[in-house]
Specification:
With 157 residues, this protein is mainly alpha-helical. It has 8 helices and no strands. It starts with 7 loop residues before the first helix and ends in a 6-residue tail after the last helix.
């Protein structure tokens, strides 16, 4: 059985989360006639879409359709480009962006319990959190949150 040949550019784009999931939707002539322009490169496609509106005066609806996006996607890309330059067009990591259980309010309370009784174990703290806040957390999550708080560093992703 033959192995599939993996295009190194596709692999690099996928690793950087910049692989356009719908390259076939890009109908802009620029991408059909010039090999430099790659419809698989999501950042390049979005950049060219925004550039086409800003520099060439093409209506947003027309440009969005040519590049395979919706109008809201155009406006999001334009805002991201204005705020952070081309790096703003790189899709963010999926998933939650911050703690949703061990909030600042919960951790302030946990800290007060630890200040009152330094011998409290993470399992006991997790039980207290559930009893007081109705939030179930793993003891190891409590332990990590306390270490981050002590070291004064934000939650890492």
């Amino acid at each position: 059985m033959a192995r599939a040949v993996v295009d190194p550019k596709v692999a690099a784009l996928a690793a950087a989360r910049c692989l356009n999931p719908r390259p076939e939707a890009v109908r802009a002539e620029l991408f059909a006639v010039n090999a430099f322009f790659d419809p698989r490169d999501l950042v390049q496609v979005k950049y060219e879409m925004v550039r086409r509106v800003r520099e060439e005066g093409v209506p947003v609806a027309v440009a969005a359709a040519e590049f395979g996006f919706s109008r809201p996607t155009y406006y999001q890309a334009a805002a991201a480009l204005a705020a952070r330059g081309p790096a703003g067009l790189v899709p963010g990591r999926p998933g939650p962006k911050g703690g949703h259980k061990l909030t600042a309010e919960v951790m302030d309370r946990v800290q007060s319990w630890c200040d009152a009784d330094a011998g409290l174990r993470p399992a006991a703290l997790a039980e207290r959190i559930e009893a007081e806040f109705g939030v179930r957390v793993h003891p190891r999550s409590v332990e990590r949150a306390l270490v981050r708080r002590r070291e004064g560093r934000p939650k890492s992703r």
